[in-house]
Amino acid sequence: MSETGNAGGHEPPADLVVDLLRAAARAPSLMNTQPWRFVVRGDRIELRADAGRALPVADPTGRELTLSCGAALLNLRVAAARAGRACAVRLLPHPAEPDLLAVARLTGVPGRDGDLAELYEAIWLRRTNRYPFRDDPVPGPVRDELRAAAAAEGAQLDWLTGYDAWNAVRVAREAELDAEYDPARRAELDRWTGVNPARGEGIPAEAVGPRVDGRAVPLRDFAPDLVDRPAAQFEHVIQLALLSTEEDSRADWLRAGQAMERVLLTATARGLAASFLSHPLERADLRSALRDPPAARSTRRCCCGSATQPWRPRRPPGAGSPERASRPPARGMPPGVPEGRTALSSGAFGPTGRPDSDPIFGGMTVSPAHPGPVGGPASGDVALADPRRGLDPVEARRRLERYGRNEPPRPPRRPWWHRVLTQLRDPLILVLLGAITLTTLTRDVQDTIVILAVIVLNTTVGVVQEIRADRALAALSELTAPTARVVRGGAQQQVPAAQIVPGDVVVVEAGDIVPADGWLVEGAALQVDESALTGESVPVDKTAGTGPAAAMSAGTTVTRGRGVFVVTATGPDSALGRIAAALAQPGDPRTPLQRRLAGLGRVLAGTAFVLCAVVFSLGLLQGEPVVRMLVTATSLAVAAVPESLPAVATLALALGARRMAARNAIVRRLPAVETLGSVTVLATDKTGTLTEGRMVAELVWTPQESLTASGTGYEPAGELRDARGDRAEISPAMAELLRAAVLCNDAHLQAPAEPGGAWSALGDPTEAALLALAAKAGLDPERVRAGYPRVGEIPFDGQRRRMTTVHALPDGGFLACGKGAPDVILRDPTLVCPDEVRTRALDMAEELAAGGHRVLAVAAARHPHPGHDAEQGLRFLGLVALVDPPRPAALPAIGSLRDAGITPILITGDHPATARAIAERVGLAAPGDPVVTGAELAAGLPDGRLDQVRVFARTSPEQKLQIIDRLRARGHVVAMTGDGVNDGPALRRADIGVAMGHRGTEVAKQAADLILVDDDLGTVTAAVEEGRRVYANIRRFLRFGLSGGLAEILVMLAGPFAGLAIPLLPAQILWINLLTHGLPGVALGAEPAEPDVMRRAPRSPTEGVLGAGLWQQVVRLGILIAAISLGYGVWAQLTGRPARTVVFLSLGLLQLGVALGLRTRAASGRPRSALESPFLLVAASAAIALQVAAVYLPPLQDLLGTQPLSLADLARTVPATLAGYVAIRWELRRARARRRVDRHPAEVPPSRA
């Protein structure tokens, strides 16, 4: 209406005007700009557009500004009616004075606006909702009332259903995406969002709604760049109501604004919250897409929901009226009205236009909690893609250029020199680089070459490891379907999966890999295996719509049926892309050993610098040449650092990896070998790790009997056994049940292609398990099907949860067979089943489900003709209980891990009851132990309780990462096993990632450090033993190398005080280092494990590499070796023999004696026979021979500066070797006496171990 009430009136009281303006200012406006000015002139209240608050980018025509002003005008009329005054309104938008929109005069008793008074309180309660809703219906009478509210202001409100609603949402998506990628629009948004509430305008952070990656109904995101936003989900259910007017003038915009506000206030007064969508108005092409009147093709229920409405600031009344000062707060605000409230909402209101007019948007929205297909920018670009025609090929190319190829993100390539520099930052390598610099300056070619070789070897190994780890991201492309069927230009065509774009219409059927994320718009008996993403071992039913059942995710596999979906996210924005992003998350890639060796390197570097400075100073004080002392100091620096430690560690790890490979464990990253030895927690997945990874029918129940089935996998081998464990005779009732299970079945069993291979399934795993069950009972599934040809079916449906087939009988009749959820079949009122049997069956089904089984009810009936209602009058036959059974090796493997002091925990995406049942069956958890779900984790789980939990269920990939991170933060060394794509980030984040070789996806294998070739968890125990062996051998070498280096330093420091000016020449120091740290040191890395290595507790993650008394042993041995060597030297000098040669010879022999004494002990506690360590024996013997040769061979005499000794003098140094051997054996005996072996008895319940 253009005018209401009379034109006359008197100047209203000032307080009343303030109250009216306060109410008017509560109107909604785009970005809360409040683009109105109220000018009071006597009895006139002028409504003017505030050009300074216009949005030239988002609203260039001023359409939405005018709508907002119309909403403010409606509020003013409502407030006037509440005050008992009529409000005569004249709409005046005119080109001559474009900012003057309307004039209102207050008169006496309200006339036609009297019914507006009841909407007054709704003004203060209404909020533009940006939060999720509950799934409650909006009653039909309320819908009618909302339509009447729009009609009272000269507009029309239409509820959209079916394709019209879906198309309107797609248009809103396109508008949202356009705004997100337009820099000018983003800048305009930034001006009005995240503002200080003190300004009284704009949209603060708490009002813009939560941030998400993708949504089905795009409520406008006013703050794409704003931080500190809530993390809940936006709305998802497609449900729109559209507001329109007959014409498209500015006066019509004002009418539409009043109609929109009247609808919103009416909804609020009826307990509904509201949100209006305005962004499709901002593009002419999108407005035109909404001009056709809504078509009543289908009916969709309108859902409702709840949301707490945030407060939005408002300017005081005076800020909008330049000719009157602002007044105190209005007295008319209802008392006790909260700033936020909980309300209900319908579906999203939006506009459509009549022909020849543009649509007017306003309205409300609703969604369930399921986030649906995810995606960042790409998820919004599905507009204008008619599922019947698909995208135009030209548009598809444009989107491909805009969003890029549908491929997982790949890490930026690091140049080779960057990788090399990363490896050279290791402290031990830095010390060696310093040493090589000095040897080069002093022209010591031999030492330079030796040290350089060590550096090159270590750096090369590290670079290769980095390259192999980066392949984890590249492996994601293995899951992407090479081609896909899309609808483009109205025709189906095959395109490379990498060329799929948001908005494409994709057709999938059984066996296809879903190429991108999307929403299903058409499905026929569609089931999808999502185990690679979720860990769920049972395929998921998919139905068209907007809830969780309609979400399609890239990388999943269609196991049954056919479907058509619209792509919402591709490449990095898909679920698969998010996992790739998680794999790329930076973290500390170093293993515990690497961290410990880095710390040791820093200590040695500092020590070497100090000692070299001392020796250099002492030499200069004694008058030695500067160059000579510089060389000597350099030699000591090399002696102080066991430069062969990187090579020995690498060799020990490589040998460990080789031994693991012989035990079916392939190591992808060498340092992971040692880390296995320090694992304190093993986090394992369920499906395919603790279990077989395939469904098996374990029990079949009829009202007369209950039989169990033997055998594994899909192999028909096995038998049905009775309660006594004997082979059962198949009764007619049991045969009838099995026959029905075969007929009501779309799966097929496939024999192995090669002898010794495993049987496989084509189709649904549950149905394949039923076929294997029947085969074990002596039925041939293919012959049964041939004898009862199928003539009709009612496919399985996720909502009905049952499937029925009809088959021709040889005698001309027809047989209907059905299977489904027990509560559906048994509660069918037409089912032929005695009440007592029905009750027993329901109780049995509940008991089996509580034990982690998937239970199916089977029924059948004979019908006279195929047109008979197939599901009416079926006769109950029995139940079948299926389970993904535990692996036979899982129970002993869990026990062995616990004996080794390792705590096993289960982290799965499966149902809590299933997780608990499997955990109890493999001994991982005790009955009654708590099971923590992903929801509980999200709500917050104290760290103290985290240590007590052994089973986590219904967890997402992100929550797996959270669990691992929290355990690592508490000092645990965590190993994680898994086989699916969803396990990839957790495998990468854990200290040790363990993937399954057979069942594991390529993503899991590439993200893992260790691959179990036989998928046997027991192999992890063997790998842990090898890891502990490697760590023990590295400590052996450190004990040997550091004690020898310390002895050399002490000899050089104490020599001058014992009368030996320079006990050793630089060349002699380097020779001893090369000789002792070379072959003998490497041989120590190949020693076998101690007999009790798997009965010891894992070493503390905080224990240094020199912990557990090792450094004390090094000090004692170093002092002993140095003292004996100096003693020989002093004796030689006093007796006129070549003292330096004697010191050189005895020092080398003493260290080699220590090496021989470091052999692994036997089970009896004594050292193993030398013949049991042939590598060490040969290495030590060769080193002894070379050490003696250095004294007698002329070339070596010239090189090392030695002098020959008499045979008698040589004989006197032989006891030095024996002295080193005795000393180290004595030290080791003392260490074992102090060691406390911490055993973990298997009988302790796992949750309390």
UniProtKB/TrEMBL annotation:
It is found in: Cell membrane. The keyword DNA-binding does not apply. It is a multi-pass membrane protein. It comes from Carbonactinospora thermoautotrophica. This is Cation-transporting P-type ATPase N-terminal domain-containing protein. Residues 288-391 are annotated as: Disordered. Residues 376-444 form the Cation-transporting P-type ATPase N-terminal domain. NCBIfam families: ATPase_P-type (TIGR01494), Rv3131_FMN_oxido (NF047509). Its main location: membrane. Keywords: ATP-binding, Membrane, Nucleotide-binding, Translocase, Transmembrane, Transmembrane helix. GO terms for molecular function: ATP binding; ATP hydrolysis activity; oxidoreductase activity. Pfam families: Cation_ATPase, Cation_ATPase_C, Cation_ATPase_N, E1-E2_ATPase, Nitroreductase. It catalyses: ATP + H2O = ADP + phosphate + H(+). PROSITE patterns: ATPASE_E1_E2. The keyword Transmembrane helix applies. One of its GO terms (cellular component) is plasma membrane. InterPro entries: ATPase_P-typ_cation-transptr_C (IPR006068), ATPase_P-typ_cation-transptr_N (IPR004014), ATPase_P-typ_cyto_dom_N (IPR023299), ATPase_P-typ_P_site (IPR018303), ATPase_P-typ_TM_dom_sf (IPR023298), ATPase_P-typ_transduc_dom_A_sf (IPR008250), ATPase_P-type_domA (IPR059000), HAD-like_sf (IPR036412). The chain crosses the membrane at residues 448-464, 600-621, 633-655, 1037-1062, 1068-1086, 1114-1134, 1140-1158, 1170-1193, 1205-1226.
